[in-house]
Amino acid sequence: MKFNRLARRQRSIQTNPAARRGSSQNINSARLRLSDRPLEAVCRAILPVESPMGDVRANTEALKRYLTYQPSYIDMAVRSGAVAMNLASRALIGRSLYDATAEERERVIALFTKTTVGSNAMEGLKALVLLASGAEMATDEILETSRNATIERPDAKLDVTPSISWSSGRRFDAIVVGSGAGGAMAAMELAEAGLNVAIIEEGRRWTVEEFRTIHPLDRFAGLYRDGGSTAALGQPPVVLPIGRAVGGTTVVNSGTCYKTPKDVLLHWRDDAGLGLADPDDFISLLDRVWEIVKVGPVPLNVMGKNGKTAIKGAGKLNWSTGPLDRNAPGCGGTCQCAIGCPKNAKYGVHLNALPAACASGARIISEARVSKLLIEGGEVIGVEATRTDGSIFNVLAPRVVIAAGTTETPLLLRRSGLGSHPMVGKNMAIHPAIGVAGRFEEPVTAWHGVLQSAYVDQLHEEHGILMEATATPPGMGSMILPGFGRRLVAEIENADHLATLGGMVADLSVGRVMGRNRATLIYNLSKRDGKRLMEAVRGSAKVMFSAGATEVLTGIPGQPPVHNDQELDDVISRSDPRTLHIAAFHPVGTVAAGSDPERFPVEPSGALRGVRGAWVADGSLMPTCPGVNPQITIMALALAVAGNIIKEQK
């Protein structure tokens, strides 16, 4: 029922400006709600009235608006946390947090952040407040940039039918569950081979006009699963946003493209027995995908100062660096990749593979959640899916390609009675990442330019550390700033002088996905990967200093800015990696493919073990982290799996 309510509400917000403005009043009547007063107090404590973002009432309304997109347990956790802070305030200073002075509010926050649990909770509240208020504050700039940007290409012709209008029992040669990087490529290959294909997607179709006109917070919340709040629980917790739309995460990713390193392919082939990864064949698939999605280097004239700063700093260190390769021909540097490109320049699968599949007869059923695979006599005969109104319908086919994504594919297998393999849901790698910011005397304005623009791979081959210059949409990147209250205000006022660089590590596959209907992600950072994340902090800071930064914000909680290498080394030496603020964007490996039936739920061909007619074609196939941004690898794997399906039917 939660899926049905949220889907209906999101459609209303996306199509009705009045509903968007009043979203906080219109959605939560069915939820147990606490007073909004504690939320106002928390907003006042995090962003006091002295701040340029310190309109407490507007910030509270923005936060409430964002909470309408969240699962109910997050909404209640935020509100309960706000109540707890106000009770602590009364106990500590004798009055509510709302009525406290700036100094008193900071004392209460200091009390909360003394423990790891309290610190994580406060940082979570801070992230929500800054995201909501920052997006609200930057709305005019974002929408003006969007409207002034020339549309690079029109929306593609897609045969999309919302599930509410789709009748039950229709038959196809193949069904593809999911329309992202893997599902779209598999569907294209199958359809072009002559199979009658249905693609079933949980998200809806978005248009370039919506990316040019809809409030940025509504875009962000509507384009991601659970409003962008997906996280892995563990030490430390990890933010893991996952796209949900026709086109999947390719609609909202950075567009960064890498071909799978040859040593990774050899490891997959030789250790896992994954014949699909044999470089002799796989490299040609990578080249084909490269052409389909029109990959090219970021042009210097749109890169922006953020990327140029990283290249300058790495260059002075004689470190390997340069513009990133991206599938964004015609990019105008609007820095809105993460909330939908207002130019349709980022060439996601909704603009290439899906229209190619539809041109060959494929049909897309949107806003439908596949409940389970239908099985008779050990063979797949189709799927059962749920419409947005809660009604059930079936789509029938003797072949089902599961490309629901690394976090959702294990759940679908469990709901279908196919999740008994001990490794289903395990073996998850996420490519954990940290962010570092350098402060410069001259403005950088990191959000003017390409969102992810330049690479520094000096530490990649030996240490598995890849650094990428990454900004955020205007107003939505303040989470990297340290502190609360007046200190945070000072940081925000000078945010345009910051250049930002992210570092991610090829991690061990230590995470897992639990659950049947809602994914619960568990991930505890290994000691090896914790050390390498600290080295990523060190490397990123060195690049910033080399570029001329006067100080560096390491992103390590509780640590001051550093001004030289000695201070940097001191901060790193006394810091625990388990306290880091980590984000991740590339989950893989939860239904891995390989030759050993005890280690791998999927056969080397991509066929699911234990049932005939089911195949897997998404990031969950990968035996390990690929070490680079994975979208090109996922697409090539999907083409290989689809090729095996075609061979089998012949």
Characterise this structure.
This protein is α/β, with parallel strands linked by helices. 39% of the residues lie in helices and 14% in strands. Strands 1-10-4-3-14-23 form a six-stranded parallel sheet, with helices on one face. A six-stranded antiparallel sheet has the order 8-16-17-18-15-21. α5 (56-67) crosses α8, α10 packs parallel to α23 (631-649) and α16 (305-316) crosses α21 (527-547). It is globular.
Give a brief outline of the structure.
The protein has 650 residues and is an alpha/beta fold. The chain contains 23 helices and 23 strands.
How many E-type strands?
23
CATH architecture of the largest domain: 3-Layer(bba) Sandwich
Shape call: globular
Please list the strands of the largest sheet in the order they lie side by side: 1-10-4-3-14-23
What is the CATH C-level name of the largest domain? Alpha Beta
Q: How helix-rich are the residues, as a percent range? A: 25-40%
Looking at this structure, what is the CATH superfamily of the largest domain?
FAD/NAD(P)-binding domain
Radius of gyration (Å)? 24 Å
Assign the structural class, choosing from mainly alpha, mainly beta, alpha/beta, alpha+beta, or little secondary structure.
alpha/beta
Distance between the termini: 42 Å
What are the low-pLDDT stretches, counting only 5+ consecutive residues below 50? 1-34
Q: Please outline the major beta sheet.
A: 6 strands, parallel
Our count of helices gives: 23
Strand content: 5-15%
- The CATH topology annotation of the largest domain reads as FAD/NAD(P)-binding domain
Integer average pLDDT:
91
